[in-house]
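Deliverable D4.2, example record:
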Amino acid sequence: MLLSDLLDLPVFDEGRQVGYVVDVRLVLDGPPVGPLAAPRLHGLLVSPRTGGSFLGYERSDVSAPWPIAHWLRWRHRGTFLAHWTDVERADGDGVLLRPRAPRYRAALTGPTPARPAGTER
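Output generated by the structure prediction step:
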C-alpha cells in the first residue's frame, strides 16, 4: 500500500466511523539514506468531518494569514493523531484502529494525549 492510498480512507474505532485520514506523520529515524535517515510512518491524522489536508496549519506556531489558519483549524476541530502501532488493519475499505487506542493531539505541541488509553468515551 502506498501512503497516498491511505489519504481520505474512512477510519473506524470499535465498529463506528470516527473520521477520515487527512495526513500522515513521518519521522526520520531509520538507517541513513544519503544525508538523512530513512523515513518511518509514525501515525495518521484523522479528521472527524472531512477529507483534505491541513496545509501545515496544524503546527501550533503557524497563524498567518489568520483567516486561512482560523478556518482550517475550525474545519479540522476534533482531529487527532493515531499512532501507526495502534492501527489494526489498513486496506482499501478503510483503517481499523485497535480497541481503546489512545488519540493524541494533532498539533505538534508535545506528547499529551487527546484521549488517554482506557478512558470512557
